Amino acid sequence: MTDYVSFYDLAKRLGVSYDTVRRTISKFGDQLGTTVKKLKIQGSKGALTQCVAEEEANTFVAFFENKSKSEEIGGGEENEFSFRRFGYFYIIQVIPELMPNRVKIGFTDNLDQRLREHQTSAPTAKFVKYWECKRSWDQAVMDSITRENCSLVMNEVYEGDVASFIQRADAFFSMMPNSSTEIPLAESSPLRQEPDSGHDQG
Asked: Do the beta carbons of residue 106 and residue 127 sit within 8 Å?
């Protein structure tokens, strides 16, 4: 039995909106051999939802991420294709002079903006360290670096040994690709085919 993946789940997996997934499949679906179906699947709460077969979903994700370095494929005002394949995962000391072991951790596309946001309520907040990170890794990184020797304050704020947070994050990212990593395409890959310039973009 074929498993199906909804557009909503694809959007969540890639860290973009439903509309970006819909537009991209509309534009490149024929090229990728993607067949869209409306089905009731687990998680759709009994409603019909647009989805694709799991194998086709994996092909689409690989295509989307491969294109993300050089092209805008989603279109529209959001320009979500510049969701930036890579953003940053950061560790911020919230009140370094009073509570040096209290940190805020998370993902951002814009380091300067995120720091300014935190400094509105904590003027002395500062970055401890940050790493290139894909949005889809956010929760995995957080789970990895908070798995031991720390305690949750609220939301994404923790207390613990800062050096240990950094050590665990360094270990995580040492095993992951970065923005300069290229994965070569197989000779038989459909991703080698360029879209027809006359294709209906929906």
From this structure: no
